[in-house]
Structure formats: C-alpha cells, structure tokens
Amino acid sequence: MVEIVLGTALAAIGAGLAVGLAGLGSGIGQGIAAAGSVGAVAEDPDMFARGIIFTALPETQAIYGFLIAILLLVFSGIMNPSLTLNVSQGIIAVGAGAAIGFAGLGSGMGQGITASSSVGAVVEEPDMFARGIIFTALSETQAIYGFLIAILLMVFAKILGG
Amino acid sequence: MVEDITTLVTALGFPSYEIFLAVMILAIIVIGAIVVITIIRPVLGFFPYTYPNARVRARTGRLFNEKEFSEIVESQNVEEVKNYLRGVPDYAKYIDTYPLEKALDSQLAETYDLIARITPDDSKDSFKFLLKKWDIKNIKSIIIAKEAGLSHEQTVDLIVPFGELSNKLDSLIDTDSVEEVLNALEGTEYPKVMEDAIPVYKETGLLLPLEASMDKYLLENLLKTSATPEDENTTLLHNYIGTMVDVANIKIILRAKADNIKYEDIEPYMVSDGYEIREWKLKELMEAEDVSGVISGLEGTDYAPMLSDAMSEFTQTGSMATFEKLLDGYVVKTAKSISLKNQFGIVPMIAFLSRKETEVKNLKIIARGKREAGFSSSMIKEMLV
C-alpha cells in the first residue's frame, strides 16, 4: 500500500468537503427545481424545455465542487504519487474544499428555490422566462466566489503550479 | 512553517499537532453538520409544496383576467358565453356535457379534487374534508328537488358528479321524497350530522334546518382539521378557513336580526366556537337590538368599517345582498393578503382556490344575467365579485 503523508490526507478531506457539500446543495436545489418543473409540465407540456433549463441551473455548483475536488486529488498526490503536500498545504486544501463546499451548498439550494419559483412564474405568465433566468442566475455568484477563493488558495499555497 | 504550527499547537495545550488536526477536523464536521441541518430544515418544510404549487400556478395563469371577463360580459346571450368557454380547455370538456351551471360547478369540483390529491400530507386532511362540500351540495340539491317535485332529469342537472358520495348519487336521485333521501343516506355520516334537524324538518316541513346542519358540520370540521399540526402552512389555512367561519356566522346573525329571529332559534346553525369572533361575542351580537347594533358590536374588528359604510345602502334597500357581497369580498381579500405572506408553502393553493371560486361565481352571475331579461352588461359588471 502506498503511504500517504498527512498533508495529502488533509487534501483528501478538502476534496471530500468540496464535492460532498457542493453536491448536497446542488442536489437539493435541483430536486426542488425539478419538482416544480414536473408540476409545470403536468399542466402544460410545452414547459418541458424551459423546465429543463431551470432544473439544470443548480447543477453548476456540483460541477465547481467536482472540479476543485479533482484538482485537489491530482495535485495533492492521491492521483499522482510523485506529488506530496506538506501539513500547511493540507490545511489550506481543507480550506479550499470548505470554501467551494459551503458556497456551493448555499448557492445550490438558493438557486433551486428561485428556479422552482421561476418555473411557477413562467407557467403562470410565459413572459417571465427571461426575468426568471436572471433572478435564478443571481444565486450563482456565491458559488463563483467560493470557486475563485478555492482556486486562489490552491495557487498561493503552491498546490496548483507549485 | 511546520515548526511555527507545532509551537502554536503546543502553546494551545495540545500534545501534538496530529491531535490538534483531529480536533480541528472534528470541529469542522460538527460546524458543517449544524450549518447543513440549519439550512436544510426550512427547505424540507416547503419542499413537498413545490410540485403542487407549480401545478396550481399553471392553473392560476389560466384564470380569466379583467379583459377576458369584460369580453364574456359583453356576450349577447348565454349561448355566446358557452361558446367562449368552449375555447377554454378547463371548461370545454364540461360545457357540451352538462347545463352551464353544472358545467361550471363540475370544473370547480374537479379543481378541488385535484388540490386534495396533490397537496402534501400536512394539509391533506383539510383539503380532503373540503371535498365534502360537493357531497353536501348534492344532498341539498336532491332534497330541494324532492321537495319541489322535480323530475329525475331536472334533479340530475343539479348534481355535480364529484365527492365521496358520487357512487351513491343514483340511489339518492331515484328516491321519491326527502324522507327517502334521508333513509338512503344510512351508512354515511350525514344522518348523524342531521339528527337534530330531522325532527325539526318532520315537524315543520322546513328544509333550512337540514341544510344548515350540513353547512355547520362542514365549516366546524374544516376549522378543526386545519388547526393541527401547528406549523406555518396550517396556520395560514386555519386563518383562511376561520375567516370563512366568521363571515358565515356574521351573515347568519345579520339575517336573523333583519328577520327578528331569536338567538336560540339560530344557535344550532352557527359554528359556535367561531374563529376571531368567539362564542361570547356571537351571543353579544345577537343581543343587539337591530342590524346597526350588530355592526356597532363588531367595532374593533376588520368587519365593522366596511359594514358601517354599507349601512346606508341597507337602510335604503333593506337588502342583505350588500352586506353579503362585502363579506364574501372580505374572504377573497383575506386569501389575497395571505398570498403575499409566503410564496413557498400552502399559500399559492389557498390563493388559487379563492380566485377559482370567485371566477366560477362571476361566470354564474354572468350566465344568470344573460338568461334573465333586463340586465345590461354594465349592470352585470356591477354585480361581479
């Protein structure tokens, strides 16, 4: 068995937090949006395409979390044994994972709620589509902040490009 | 760097930084769990409403707006009204099958049925109980038809094919008298509901006690089913149903005062517990000398200002319709104000049901206006809720 140093093990926790929490938020958000979309399509089959768009929006948070987790796995030495991280880098990796994880959790759930409301608004008043998309996209910003901070943490801790 | 961390960790009293890290990870897990639970709990509260609310909002979008109502009011006759409704999928399937009023009621009943089926468990009891409204309407229609000696076909035209008793309707319609209808209801809850009213009917021949006892049963139990469990959704539903109960009680009292009827005579028909207007207040209102005394007694409630404003019209016309229209409007207004409180739970369903009721009520007013001579479009518009 390959011996994993403590820093790398900490980065693995960071990767878990990144994909786990972001995926949780994204999953709940997408579930809420999908439930609303199914209701809308049940009443108006023409809502299918627009329902899919609103349901897909909360997917992005899981993608951000997944990306950060992959980067951590690759650059911490788990997927590439020639690399290792020291303890400080490992702690920073946990911070990076937590940054995108928690940001993705809140952003994904918030976006799901807005997406579901927007689906309701669009099925009631079709002209609301563009405005619904704008309101729903607003919740994306928190996930982007988390993603950026995670990347910056990894770059300046020399996990990425070190 | 590692040395710095080790010094810091030692200064904090941890024997090694591995233990410090273990504690830190544990702290992250605990904080994470608290954050996740805190965020998810409220979401789980409204999550079950997401699907029904989308369906309800789709139907809300299909309700007639002011412009469409104006077009319907401008119809030349009932046939034109029916033609208009044939172009609306929700109504179209009933318009050619049933007479207009029955078609409208059937569409409304179908809407109630849909809501009762798709609503989440915590409000299901109330909406399922609300379906009894159609059983009660059908029983009332049948006993009125029997009393008036209507034919089988005429009676069928009054019946809405929805509700728990829909399988029993044929046997109820096939009876020859009110007493036979009451006997045919054996095995349902209604003989017990009407147990006090049946002797009064047998003695006086009046149908009112039978009808009132069923109305009371519906409202009283709706109020009870919406009282539990106590969460935000059921509280809002309870508020709406409570307003309906108070309005029903005020209508009975105003009518009783206008007709000089004693409290003892109307008490059996009132929902005695009330909602905001409790039993003691109802008694106090009934002790008032006349209609204006009842309105003065309501001082301090939301009902007093609007009823006071309508008092002069009542004095001139002597018609209760003015008060009744205002009180019905107040129920609609309550649903509207509830609809502004929370968009994620039960509220869209309450708001939709209220607006749907109003739409059907208005369509019936238009149909009646077009059927009877002497009603201009502007007069019909005045009558709309």
TrEMBL record, chain A:
Pfam families: ATP-synt_C (PF00137)
Matching InterPro entries: ATPase_proteolipid_c-like_dom, ATPase_proteolipid_csu, F/V-ATP_Csub_sf
An example Gene Ontology CC term for this record: proton-transporting V-type ATPase, V0 domain
V-ATPase proteolipid subunit C-like domain residues: 13-72, 94-153
Membrane topology per record: Multi-pass membrane protein
Predominant place of localization: membrane
Localisation: Membrane
GO MF annotations, alphabetized: proton-transporting ATPase activity, rotational mechanism
SUPFAM superfamilies referenced in this protein's UniProt entry, alphabetically: F1F0 ATP synthase subunit C (SSF81333)
Residues passing through the membrane, by range: 61-79, 91-113, 133-157
Keyword terms of this UniProt record: Ion transport, Membrane, Transmembrane, Transmembrane helix, Transport
Similarity section: Belongs to the V-ATPase proteolipid subunit family.
The name this protein goes by in its record: ATP synthase subunit c
Source organism of the structure: Methanobacterium lacus (strain AL-21)
